[in-house]
Design a protein that fits this description.
The complex is a heterodimer of chains A (712) and B (546). Chain A is an alpha/beta fold and 712 residues long. Chain A is built from 23 helices and 24 strands. With 546 residues, chain B is of the alpha/beta class. Chain B has four domains: 227 residues, Pyruvate-ferredoxin oxidoreductase, PFOR, domain III (Pyruvate-ferredoxin Oxidoreductase, domain 3, 3-Layer(aba) Sandwich); 102 residues, no CATH class; 99 residues, no CATH class; 81 residues, no CATH class. The chains are: A alpha/beta (712), B alpha/beta (546).
């Protein structure tokens, strides 16, 4: 964090996220906002932690209620020369924010407005696979896609503000998944206090009705976009050389790439023998660090005189390829343009995918450039192919994401499954958040997910007064406050929808890393929290609402579900299921516990165990839990072969397995061990009395057993 | 131009870990070591849901300090590093778990021409493996063999155990192996530096590091590059088990012990039982040699469960199988399996048995050990018990139980009282007294409702198996093995009983047909495939229309 204070000339070794934060401070940003979500959650956390530095510089920061809120924040740059940046994950964040962004892009901006997109695409992504490019095109906002290099990313932030100001257009900076977590180095500059702060702006209000999106201004905006802003942007991009032309003239073929793919491209060419680690390529390159707008002149200049050019464009539709074809056709350039004909139409452009496509291109136009054939190009059947996988596929099983050890959501789904044993199955409309993992084994609950906070809305059509059961909807507290209160609960009240709505209230926006929300229990000096969800839903007109403040009580959860399923009341039945996210709880509790232990205070540690002798190895406990700490182990019994259940040391003693054993009437194998550290005098006496009593009472049992058993 | 294929390339590492295992810390440490040495280092990963118990790949590239003029005048002043591991081009693969090493191989990261594969032989079972009603675990031996085939050098050891022994986490022991394997040109001190700088749990991390380092350090004299050497000695439990299944040391130990027992059982069966069973134990000499050890296990178990005469009854039952065993002189599998399953069924889990298991001293000692509690440390053990009306009456004398079961008032009262289940503190004076009293009800057992019912069922099962044995010994054995589906408690047990009944009906129908044994075995697997009986339903021969 202190790295953010470093001044000009210092070399910083940091992750992508921290580099972006530093770049914002160096750019004289006046206000920052955003909504958490992988892969830029950490950016919000870093900004939150950098509070002190932001205050010193007079930079305003807020945790926006949603991406739409964050985007609307940029309105501050419409009339004032304030540089503002907001961040969220894409494309889902852009979906939510697109109304605000479209309005912002229509009127245009005076101060630099930067939207930092955490592009959640490819391996590890948790959302639908779409492109942010479409949003850039439809609202006419510029899209930067810098090389995955820390210096290049830092430069892109600064250039982004300038481009925005030069063209009065909001700019989006695409920060790809792996770039966010990229570790590298860059040379710092001094932090800059914004020339105008938000305080200055508030105290000197300004307005210009021509910037408000209402006819006739809105018609004028459209003309401005194409007549003024676009040309201004193209001019800036060309003058600043934001796109790079590399080794033009080295050959009469070339490759055009999105900036974000540059490193992978160079690696592919290294593998084929036509580039080196320092990017000295034998194939001319045009690197589009700005992927929208496309600079027609640069494309025409690069392609002219070349026999063929390969375009590397990740994802679909092939917007760039269509665009380039139109540009070349219009300019009468007959260079052959290849792209998705040689590379995958959909999916991530990994090193393997790109190497194959580039090899195919070079083999066709200049085979002498391919001096080496990497193993990945070999036929799968070739024993030297890395994919001639010498491992039995049956031995590799999928590892779907699941709920953490001690997760308070697990007992909710255990309870729901048990309730359904009594009432029959329901249609379950799921939502975005950790609770979505319930769609996987072992719970297998949840049929659709329509977007963040839309669990309830996703169940709205499945509402029929004559039906013998209600539909179930799930929502997290994050989604609830993001929009679910109005889009879901309000909608269900208004339309008299009989759904049973479960709101998972775990104190945080947990799936995105544990940020506070309105209903969080934490006392934070900077935010207003502790607003109960039940109060909110009652305020909006829900009559039937219950809060369960201990989800680990599976029996109560099950019974409450049954009660809600059987309730005949009209309108939504809301169950607020409340227990703290264990991941965050452990982060809070562990240091406290360590300190107490050190200070010699009496501390009780709880964990669960399974008696291997009593366990019959049927694993029913696992099938209603799926806890990572509840696993299987080889059966120690010489007569039995099936593995027994076992609780790992990672158990946090949440009690779900014991409560499940009770609620589902499983088996008597579970026990909880409470170990007392720093025992009191009373504890010590108790140990002696009990040990004595237990020895006395077990003597007869042991003596009898000893007649039959061989002494160990 | 000096090129990739000529060796002008970065060192590449792919680290496959599960959420929470510290894979990110490990990658950061590697980067820190390289940067200390003046190298260029880059580290990338994919975050998101994969971190929550899923598998994640961290990817690191290390490039040696700039080679003079190569760096100047080029397009870039710094080397351009890739953000993806490229199949066939990874120098070091680290897998925190054995199946993840298989995944690395499947994805082409670990290859025989290049890769040093460091894998922990420990397993973190996937949900599919855990949920199976029987044994759903994948073949560890195949995974380990594949690791050998798909690496230039394999360092396979139980890094999880090493970390636990040192009171640290697996990232530390794996980091030790990365340092020790010699693939990265940095000194041990350089590797230890980031651990010391990390500040948290330095001593334990260094201990785990040292263990990992030693595991990966090759013995000095091993010039031949070709054959993969597995460091057998570092497999947990390998010392007495040999190179069987690495993470199934328990099975390996069991097998080894069983061999030892079989030898003793042939010479001196009495030494494998307590004094009260010696005369009975001598009688196992009449049984096929291969089945004696298992029978002695059964004798002890049934005697402790009930008494010596119950053990005698057990032996009598096993003897009948021995009489019809088609392979008495050889493997005697029918007798062996009968010895196993008859004992397991005869020792069905009723309240008395559970109370006995819960109160044994060895159990209490084991729990203390597991909790790492010192002798004077207070430790409470709370049992989650949920006796049901049927289970309670099952443990009563048959006549009384039947009368109670007829009374709806009693049923409702008891059900209401037991609905919540109970938590019993076994370590308290009251709790232990209650349980040990229950355990002492053992002499009453033969008169209980359940006992009577189970003996009848056992007899029917045995008669069925013995009936087909002369004609089809294999089918008889499969019938015997169907006892495996009788497991669990409550609803699970009921489901098992239903499956069992259907299997027995199927056995009757299959008797006399070709391949009857195999078909019954397949049906048994189907019965264990899901808890709703769907799979069994689908595979059962359709009942002929009446």
């Amino acid at each position: 964090m202190q790295q953010l204070r470093h001044g000009a000339g210092t070399e910083l070794h940091v992750e992508g996220i921290l580099a972006v934060t530093k770049a914002l401070l160096q750019s004289g940003v006046a206000y920052v906002g955003g909504y958490q979500g992988a892969p830029i959650s950490h950016l919000m956390d870093v900004l939150g932690d950098a509070r002190e530095i932001l205050d010193e510089l007079g930079v305003y920061f807020e945790n926006s209620a949603s991406e739409a809120t964050a985007a609307a924040m940029l309105a501050a740059s419409v009339h004032y020369p304030l540089r503002g940046a907001v961040t969220f994950k894409s494309t889902v964040g852009l979906n939510v924010a697109s109304d605000a962004l479209a309005n912002l892009a229509s009127g245009g901006v005076k101060g630099g407005a930067l939207v930092i997109l955490g592009e959640d695409y490819g391996e590890g992504s948790s959302i639908m696979q779409e492109r942010s490019h479409a949003f850039a095109m439809k609202s006419q906002m510029w899209l930067l896609d810098p090389r995955p290099n820390i210096t290049a990313i830092v430069d892109a932030v600064e250039a982004g503000f300038e481009l925005s100001e030069a063209s009065n257009t909001p700019v989006m900076l695409d920060l790809r998944l792996r770039s966010c977590h990229l570790h590298g180095a860059f040379t710092a500059k001094d932090n800059r206090r914004p020339p105008m702060t938000v305080k200055d702006a508030i105290e000197n209000p300004a307005r210009d009705v021509s910037r408000v999106v209402l006819p006739p201004a809105s018609f004028q905006h459209e003309q401005e976009k194409v007549n003024d802003r676009w040309p201004a942007a193209v001019r800036f991009i060309k003058e600043r050389g934001l796109n790079e032309v590399i080794n033009d003239g080295a050959s009469d073929i070339g490759i055009i790439t999105q900036g974000g793919l540059y490193n992978t491209l160079n690696r592919s060419m290294e593998l084929l023998g036509c580039s080196d680690p320092f990017g000295n390529t034998q194939v001319p390159l045009y690197v589009m660090n700005v992927t929208y707008p496309v600079v027609d002149d640069e494309i025409v200049a690069f392609c002219s005189g070349k026999r063929a050019v390969l375009l590397l464009e990740e994802g679909q539709p092939d917007y760039l390829e269509q665009n380039l074809n139109a540009i070349l056709r219009r300019a009468g350039v007959d260079t052959a343009l290849h792209g998705k004909d040689l590379l995958p139409v959909a999916g991530e452009y990994t090193s393997a995918a790109m190497t194959k496509g580039i090899a195919a291109f070079l083999q066709r136009y200049q085979p002498d450039l391919v001096v080496h054939e990497p193993a990945l190009l070999l036929d799968r059947d070739d024993p030297a192919s890395p994919f001639a996988s010498p491992v039995d596929p049956a031995a590799i099983l999928p590892r779907p994401p699941g709920l953490c050890t001690g997760c308070p959501e697990r007992p909710i789904f255990s309870g729901m499954k048990l309730a359904e044993r009594e009432t029959g199955q329901h249609h379950v409309s799921a939502d975005i958040g950790c609770h979505l993992f319930a769609i996987n084994a072992p719970f297998d609950l949840g049929a659709t997910t329509m977007g963040y906070g839309l669990g309830s809305a996703g169940a709205s059509a499945l509402n029929a007064s004559g039906a013998d059961r209600s539909t179930v909807a799930i929502m997290g507290d994050g989604g609830f406050w993001h929009n679910g209160l109005t889009s879901g609960v309000g909608n269900a009240v208004f339309n008299k929808n009989d759904q049973v709505l479960v709101v998972v209230d775990n104190d945080y926006s947990a799936a995105t890393g544990g940020q506070d929300v309105l209903s969080s229990h934490a006392d934070t000096p900077l935010r207003s929290t502790q607003h109960p969800i039940e109060k909110a839903v009652r305020g909006i007109g829900v009559e039937w609402a219950k809060t369960i403040d201990n989800t680990f009580d599976v029996t109560q959860v099950r019974d409450t579900f049954v009660e809600a399923f059987e309730a005949k009341d009209a309108g939504p039945k809301v169950l607020v299921m409340q227990s703290e996210c264990q991941l965050n709880r452990q982060r809070r509790v562990k240091p406290e516990m360590r300190k107490a232990l050190k200070d010699g205070k009496r501390v009780v540690r709880e964990r669960f165990g399974v008696d291997a002798e009593t366990c019959t190895g049927d694993h029913a406990c696992i099938r209603i839990s799926g806890c990572p700490s509840l696993t299987i182990a080889s059966n120690p019994d010489p007569m039995r072969t099936d593995p027994v259940a076992k609780v790992l040391d990672s158990c946090v003693g949440c009690g779900v397995c014991g409560n499940n054993a009770h609620a589902a009437v499983l088996c008597p194998s579970f026990y909880r061990t409470d170990v007392v550290h720093n025992p009191t005098a009373r504890d010590k006496v108790l140990v002696r009395i009990r040990s004595w009593w237990m020895r006395a009472l077990s003597r007869g049992l042991e003596r009898r057993a000893a007649r039959f058993e061989v002494a160990a | 131009m000096s090129s990739w294929s000529e060796g002008r390339r970065p060192l590449t590492l792919a680290i496959l870990a599960l959420g929470g295992e510290g894979g990110g810390v490990l990658a950061d440490w590697v980067v820190a070591v390289a940067e200390q040495g003046g190298w260029y280092a880059q580290n990338t990963s994919v975050a998101g849901v994969a971190q929550r118990t899923g598998a994640t790949v961290y990817y690191v590239e290390l490039f040696p300090p700039a080679e003079g003029d190569a760096a100047t005048g080029g397009v870039r002043r710094e080397p351009v590093m890739s953000i993806f591991p490229t199949p066939g081009e990874v120098d070091v693969v680290v897998a925190s778990e054995l199946m993840e090493s298989g995944r690395a191989i499947q994805r082409g990261f670990s290859t025989a021409d290049r890769t040093t594969l460091i894998t922990s032989t420990s397993r973190v079972y996937s949900i599919d493996e855990k949920m199976a009603m029987g044994d759903g675990r994948v073949d560890d031996a195949e995974l380990l063999a594949a690791a050998g085939r798909a690496s230039k050098r394999l360092v396979a050891a139980d890094f999880m155990q090493m970390a636990e022994d040192a009171g640290s986490v697996i990232s530390a022991s794996l980091f030790g192996a990365v340092a020790g394997c010699g693939a990265l040109p940095f000194t041990r001190e350089a590797f230890e530096a980031p651990i010391r700088a990390f500040g948290k749990g330095v001593e334990s991390s260094l201990a785990a590091f040292a263990a990992g380092y030693d595991a990966a350090t090759e013995p000095p004299a091993a010039p031949a590059p070709a054959p993969v050497e597995l460091p057998m000695s570092s497999w947990s439990g390998a010392s007495d088990a040999g190179p069987a299944r690495p993470s199934r040391a328990v099975e390996a130990r069991k097998g080894h012990r069983e061999e030892e027992r079989r030898r003793i059982a042939a010479e001196d069966p009495g030494s494998l039982v307590g004094p009260g069973l010696r005369p009975l134990a001598e009688q196992v000499r009449e049984l096929p040699e291969a089945a004696r050890s298992m029978t002695l296990h059964g004798l002890v178990r049934t005697a402790v469960y009930q008494d010596a005469s119950y053990a005698e009854r057990y032996l009598e039952r096993v003897r009948r199988f021995a009489a019809v065993d088609p392979d008495r002189e050889g493997e005697a599998r029918l007798t062996c399996e009968a010895a196993r399953h008859v004992a397991l069924w005869m020792c069905f889990q009723d309240i008395i048995q559970v109370a006995q298991q819960k109160t044994r001293r060895a159990r209490m000692d084991r729990i203390r050990q597991e909790a790492k509690a010192k002798p004077d440390q207070l430790l409470q053990v709370r049992e989650y018990l949920h006796p049901q009306f049927d289970e309670l009456t099952d443990s009563m004398p048959a006549g009384m139980a039947k009368r109670l079961r007829r009374s709806r008032i009693v049923r409702r009262t008891v059900q209401a009282a037991t609905r919540q289940g109970m938590i019993l503190n076994t370590t308290s004076i009251l709790g232990y007294t209650q349980l040990s009293l229950l355990a002492r009800m053992r002499p009453l057992r033969p008169r209980t409702l359940r006992f009577v019912r189970e003996q009848e069922a056992i007899d029917r099962w045995i008669e069925r198996a013995l009936g087909v044995a002369p004609a089809d010994g294999e089918l008889a054995r499969e019938i015997v093995e169907c006892q495996r589906v009788l497991k669990g408690y409550g609803a699970t047990y009921e489901h098992g009983s239903e499956s069992f009944a259907r299997l027995m009906d199927a056995a009757d129908e299959l008797a006399g047909q070709d391949g009857a044994a195999e078909r019954l075995a397949a049906l048994r697997d189907a019965a264990l495939a899901d808890e709703h009986g769907h799979e069994l339903e689908a595979k059962l021969p359709k009942a002929p229309a009446h």
